[in-house]
C-alpha cells in the first residue's frame, strides 16, 4: 500500500521505473514479483492521479477571465539535441 505520507510524482515514477526494471530482469522470486507488481500498480495509480490533477490545474489556469479557454501552443525546434536546450514559443 502507498505510504500515508505524500510521495511526489517524481519519486513515484522513479520507483515505478525501478520496479519495472527488476521485473524485466526476471531475477525476483514469484512472491517478490507479485509484491513488486502490486506496488507498481499502486504507484501507477498515484502517477495517473497526479497527472490528471496537473491537467485540471493547467486547464483552469489557461481559462480567460471571461471563462473561455485560452488557446496555447508549444512549438519545439525540429533539430533539438540533448546538449542544446529547446526553444519554446508559449501562447
UniProtKB/TrEMBL annotation:
Record EC number: 3.1.11.6
Subcellular localization, as worded in the UniProt entry: Cytoplasm
Job description of the protein: Bidirectionally degrades single-stranded DNA into large acid-insoluble oligonucleotides, which are then degraded further into small acid-soluble oligonucleotides.
MF terms in GO: exodeoxyribonuclease VII activity
Gene3D superfamilies in the cross-refs: Exonuclease VII, small subunit (1.10.287.1040)
Protein name as annotated: Exodeoxyribonuclease 7 small subunit
InterPro entries hit by this protein: Exonuc_VII_S, Exonuc_VII_ssu_sf
UniProt KW Coiled coil keyword: yes
Organism: Leptospira brenneri
Enzyme class, UniProt record, top EC level: hydrolase
Family recorded in the similarity comment: Belongs to the XseB family.
